[in-house]
Amino acid sequence: MRLKSYFADTIEEAIGQARRELGSDAMLVNSKRSGAEARHLGAYEVVCAGGNETRNQNAELGRSPSPKPAPPMDRLSQDVTELKQQMENLALTLARSGGAMTGIASDPELSKLFAMLTDADVYADLAYEVIVRMTTPVTLEGLRTELGKLLSVDSQLGCGPETQPAPRVVALVGPPGSGKTTTLVKLALAYGFTSRKRSQILTLDTYRIAAADELQSYAAILGIGCEVLETTQALAQALGEHRDKDLILIDTPGLASEEMEGFEELGQFLASYPSIDTHLVLGASMRTSDLRRMAERYEIFGPRKLIFTRLDETETFGPILSQSVRMGKPVSFLSRGQRIPEDLEPARRETILDLVLKTEPAARSRFGTAAA
Length: 372
Hints:
- Helices cover about 40% and strands about 15% of the residues.
- By secondary structure, the protein is α/β, with parallel strands linked by helices.
- It has two domains: about 1-150, no CATH class; about 170-370, P-loop containing nucleotide triphosphate hydrolases (Rossmann fold), CATH 3.40.50.300.
- Strands 6-5-7-4-8-9-10-11 form an eight-stranded mixed beta sheet, with helices on both faces. It has a three-stranded antiparallel beta sheet with strand order 1-3-2.
- Strand 9, helix 13 and strand 10 (about 330-335) form a beta-alpha-beta unit.
- Helix 4 (about 100-105) crosses helix 5 (about 110-120), helix 5 packs antiparallel against helix 6 and helix 8 runs parallel beside helix 9.
- The longest helix has 15 residues, at about 80-95.
- The radius of gyration is 24 Å and the shape is elongated.
């Protein structure tokens, strides 16, 4: 079994190249827009898998396979994570029906929609699952319907029904630079101060220089309490002391991979405390491989929902949908900048689908460069 990339101006043309070299059973593994360094080779890079039968037959008959451009040498130094992702996609594809994938490649409308999803950086396995569910007639609206069935949103703060007694306790976790603290202040203003709810901020972020001071300054402006804590035990005690509040917001430190080891206790506490609604904050502009890795790393905190920030720094929004589906967790809020609280909005299914499929310019314009 061989795994090889082909470059062409259309996905169908690239698959044709693969079948001429790898054999008629060559299967599509992944497709994406070519990077800047390889764009002169073709608009798309298509990864296909197949056997060596055709190549061997050609050699025996003295024929050479159809010539095609070789990928640039710097592709040999591609990120190991990307190679791993391709191998995962290969394993997934081989486990499926080759006929179904061939059907996508042979149908111009299905190929077009599949390319739309991969252009949006929707994970390849998810794009496949969605496309094979499509029924005739194949339309963009049908694709939107299928994606909508998979996507879930939930912007309610706190666990349980709205009738549940106070306090509503919300914790934000996430990697450094994801915008946790700014998002927490936006939530405090929009859902605490503006709603006249008795609110309290608890922060365990004593690792970042002046982080607690910054949060205390915001809290003072809003006229709400802010307490700096250093241990999980102190957090448990503070939750008891502030049980008369309506809304408690918990800020946590952004942790690099080498710093995660000492926070198992906090992770277990947040994951097991029944009334804490933990949201994982992720930057929408992160590389897909980094986004996956961060999501896996922060599973120890038991996040119930996902918040995506920095939407103004990217033009591809497929990872928002993909990561939500992959983790089986709803998206709660979307954020696009630093303005408080204007740049935070509750996640809506229609908004996310508009961003992924680029079907509603009016909605996309709210997210800066994504409207271009």
